[in-house]
């Protein structure tokens, strides 16, 4: 039950970072924190105390398994999250090369001057 609170706390920290920061890199870090918190929450929902890992063999009973679907979903979400992080990082590099800053207000000011 405590893991749910930790997940929601991390989601809150990520949202707070999105709302209060003006640096694009900190936006990306905040989105990554939210992504990790949601993955943690989905994994914690799929856990059932006293159940076994979902590995089938001829010696195990099928009724004593944890549902493997949340694990598969989170594994897919991790791969997508890494791809999104890589794309965001490349966009940040290009933005920094063009404007020499990652501050949102300075970028808007430089865009207005052009």
TrEMBL record:
The keyword Signal does not apply. InterPro entries: CPA3_antiporter_subunitC (IPR050601), NUOK/Mnh_C1-like (IPR039428). It is a multi-pass membrane protein. Keywords: Cell membrane, Membrane, Transmembrane, Transmembrane helix, Ubiquinone. The chain crosses the membrane at residues 6-21, 28-49, 69-93. It comes from the Bacteria. This is NADH-ubiquinone oxidoreductase, chain 4L. It comes from Thermosipho melanesiensis (strain DSM 12029 / CIP 104789 / BI429).
């Amino acid at each position: 039950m405590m893991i749910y609170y930790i997940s929601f706390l991390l989601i809150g920290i990520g949202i707070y970072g999105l709302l209060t920061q003006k640096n694009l890199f900190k936006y990306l870090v905040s989105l990554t924190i939210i992504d990790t918190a949601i993955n943690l929450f989905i994994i914690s929902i799929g856990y059932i105390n006293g159940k076994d890992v979902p590995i089938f063999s001829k010696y195990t009973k099928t009724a004593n398994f944890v549902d493997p679907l949340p694990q598969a979903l989170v594994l897919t979400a991790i791969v997508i999250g890494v791809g999104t992080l890589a794309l965001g990082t490349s966009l940040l590099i290009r933005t920094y090369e063009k404007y020499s800053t990652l501050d949102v207000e300075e970028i808007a000011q430089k865009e207005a001057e052009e």
